[in-house]
Amino acid sequence: MDFNKGWFFKLSEEDMLSKPISEDWQAVRLPHDWSIGQAYDTLHLEGATGYLPGGIGWYKKEFYSPEEGDEINSYLLFDGVYNHSKTYINGQLLGYQAYGYSPFYFDISPYLNPPGQKNTLTVKVDRSRYADSRWYPGAGIYRNVKMIQTGKFHIPVWGVFVTTPEIDGATASLAVQYQLKNDHPQTKEARLLLEIAGPSGEVVKKESWSISQSSGSKETHQKKVTLHDIKRWGIDQPNLYQLSLTVSVDGEKQDEYATSFGIREFHFDAATGFYLNGENMKIKGVCLHHDGGLVGSAVPKDVWRRRLAYLKEGGCNAVRISHNPAAEELLDLCDEMGFLVQDEFYDEWDYPKDKRLNTNEQHDDYISRGSAAYFQENAEKDLKATVRAHRNHPSIFQWSIGNEIEWTYPRNKLATGFWDADAGGNYFWNPTRLSPEQIKARYDSLPAKDHTIGATAQKLSAWTKELDTTRVVTANCILPSASYVTGYAEALDVIGFSYRRVMYDYGHKNFPDLPIMGTENLPQWHEWKAVAERPFVAGLFLWTGVDYMGEGHHREGSKNPRLRGARSGLLDYAGFKKRAYYMMKSLWTEEPIIHIATQKINKSTFKYDGNKKKVVERKPGAWKHAIWYWPETNQHWNYKKGDSVIVEVISNLPSLELSLNGQSLGKKDLKDFDDRIYKWMVPYGAGTLKVEGRNNGQLATQFLHTAGESANVRLQLDQRYLEDDGSSVAHVEVQLEDQKGFPVYHRDEELEVTVDGPLELLGVDNGSPTNFTHPSSSRIKTSEGKALVIVQSIKGQKGTGTVEIKVNDQSFRQSITID
Predict the structure, then answer these.
(1) pLDDT the model gives residue 421
(2) Burial class of residue 361, CB neighbours in 10 A (0-12, 13-18, 19+)
(3) Are 712 and 738 in contact (CB under 8 A)?
(4) Do the strands 252-261 and 266-269 form a parallel or antiparallel pair, or are they unpaired?
(5) Are 651 and 670 spatial neighbours (Cβ–Cβ below 8 Å)?
(6) pTM score above 0.90
(7) How do strand 283-288 and strand 318-321 relate by DSSP bridges?
(8) Which of 310, 530, 546, 589 has its CA 20 to 30 A from that of 50?
């Protein structure tokens, strides 16, 4: 049962366990992130976690015991609470959960009041360590909560695991592993009914059988099932099956467990890369942090749906959940939409990272104590809970046991030779000068800590494979030359390289039996080029798919503005597409792509070479070393007469022609641009730039117009109809326009947003990393003429809602139907 409604919240350092719910408690519906509801403080809080506060929060909810009393088992399932949470029922402590990303549950049956009586559930969340992460984590019960009620002979939480060990053409043999627990006071015989529905909803298999178990026993069973005329789960056709397992005793239903699954097969080959359902393909992936921009870490499913839809449109086929287990709703969407998923367990192991400077620990203070502080005690529990909860998702094809862990064991860094006085190269762009044997000798000669990276990696891998051997185990290795010889790589089925494309050949030559892929890569053409040219590299994950909050480090005295987070995404905080998006789409899809950007020549990274009569890089070959952030350009065609402007066009078409007001400025060929960016130097003139090219005989055209003052607002909705479930959301994209209807990108205006009817305003954003407007504000200044408004339905309220945007004394409205 959905257990998200009816909660009350209070931010307080006082002990509120025995305090009743009163008027000063805030009524909330989960998921809830209290941190995003506070004000940014760029002077006193931490850029590492987005300049937002932590604190201690209390949640309370009252509910009634089931009328059936002792005949019912009740479990409380949390998908994630950030963090250090203690859960109480009627004042009795159920348990403590330190890690903020793994799911957990409690059997609350023994603690409930008699049938029909009221119970009080209390959750204390201690987020006083407000700099305990390298990114924005949020605070509170930020993922879904469910109540699970069963009879006494039942399937435990996460008690069904479906695999497809044999697939032969259109036939698949399923292995259904299921647990049964008999809490009756005597031996009981249960009747089980298994039903499987196909992707279209029709029942394709139905079987029943009986099992006898003694009182108090918990046993694991296996059931083999054969399906014919199967439809496989894949990137383009993510076909999902539904399995239902019903348990009955003496003709009465005790439990019904339902789970979706997919039929697919994949493998990695060290020489030829990745195969899904027999097809060799490249993994075109992005990394995603778990925040949703203005909604913080309590992300409505529809927010993820919009973001994933844009990434899918851009050719993305895989997602790495960095650097922690994913929310169940995000995995559901990846199943439904056809994304491969790398589910990652940890960012820290035995030793902490520096939350402010990203690498090895450089200071020790309470507020930055993260998951390393309780890793020894809780790692196995949290890892196994994640695997059990997530292993039926067909989208998951990799378990990642860690992210850039090597920094925290210093001899890994020292053994590589990159930091020697005579290294003679750049760690980022040069392969190591040392052989594996030399690195191993250096590593062994250096002093070791109490825990070694190899031993811990092999322990984590073994725990994972205790529960699931159908996926590969990988890790994101920042120092692969060391990881190969320290026992770390021996724990992996696929080794992931973090920003080490220059090491692909080294790894394949020296360790040819271990498959390689990029698991954290720059959003640049040169990164994809390195993968595309090497059949043995399975693919990559770009950093990142979407701009994320936190990791906004600011040095004292710096003239650069403070940032609310990182800006390396293909999409910005509001989900608007950036130049990197169009570059990757031009590489990852067959769709004809034309994207125009402009910049005054004195601000451009390019210059005009009069002798060669062409635009060239100011620093020749700089594109080969481009990192996360693209040079600043403009979307507009609004300059001053006499300005010399560089026009840059990203395209996958073999040739393009640029014209201004109908006059051709020259035709160019893609083969002449090593950086895959067409370039023209154009003396500015007001009017219309047109770029056109042909793709298989079909004409593709893109325009950029000189715009006037903003006179209108174009509102674009992603959904015009919402369910009255209190969780569905609609995104309203706002674009300024001039009197002719041309987009205005060169001017910004202050917008005021109001909603009425059965709608709630979740907040506003403009996508800019320097935007510190309170997310729940009703006012926002556009950035490059754009802004985003998110509204949500109200539980149980139907009707028509209206979103109104006021700008310059004008009003613009959109209606949304809620049913």
Answers:
(1) 60
(2) middle
(3) yes
(4) unpaired
(5) yes
(6) yes
(7) parallel
(8) 310
